[in-house]
Design the sequence.
């Protein structure tokens, strides 16, 4: 990927961002290139961090399903930085290396359960088509509580935002 379109803010160089940077480090372990660019807009960086922390760490969605959704979106939106950043999270959530490679290759083969394929089909539909047919929504909803459906839908929407931001601003490797 080419040079970032908006210059990153080097952590520790702006005293007025110290509290925000500390919060990012507390949740993420570091201020990644994504957050270094977001720091150009402190209010957006703070809101982004709160939303994405809730999606990743405070959701009722099973971690393995969440990570498969994120990987799928990264592939669909041509965001390799996002994909690579989430492989360790996916492995940690119990997603097999075979499933990770199938997601990278855009294959929904027999290694995925029926529920996983349904969730990934919803991911594909929300990402590519935006409109979700009632039959698809109901088939996925049959497996989840209302809260889990909100958590799943927000996860798909939020990671479409992440990948599109990364790609548009050429953040990554």
Sequence:
């Amino acid at each position: 990927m080419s040079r970032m379109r908006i210059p990153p803010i080097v952590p520790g160089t702006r005293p007025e961002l110290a509290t925000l940077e500390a919060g990012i480090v507390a949740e993420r372990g570091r201020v990644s290139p994504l957050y270094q660019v977001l720091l150009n807009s402190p209010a957006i960086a703070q809101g982004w961090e709160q939303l994405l922390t809730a999606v990743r760490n405070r959701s009722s969605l099973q971690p393995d399903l969440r990570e498969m959704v994120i990987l799928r979106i990264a592939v669909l939106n041509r965001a390799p930085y996002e994909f690579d950043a989430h492989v360790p999270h996916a492995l940690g959530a119990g997603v097999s290396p075979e499933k990770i490679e199938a997601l990278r290759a855009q294959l929904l083969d027999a290694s995925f359960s029926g529920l996983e394929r349904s969730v990934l089909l919803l991911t594909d539909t929300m990402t590519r088509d935006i409109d979700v047919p009632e039959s698809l929504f109901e088939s996925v909803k049959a497996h989840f509580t209302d809260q889990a459906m909100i958590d799943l839908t927000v996860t798909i929407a939020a990671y479409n935002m992440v990948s599109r931001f990364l790609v548009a601003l050429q953040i990554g490797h």
Notes: The CA atoms of residues 8 and 133 lie 40 Å apart. The radius of gyration is 17 Å.
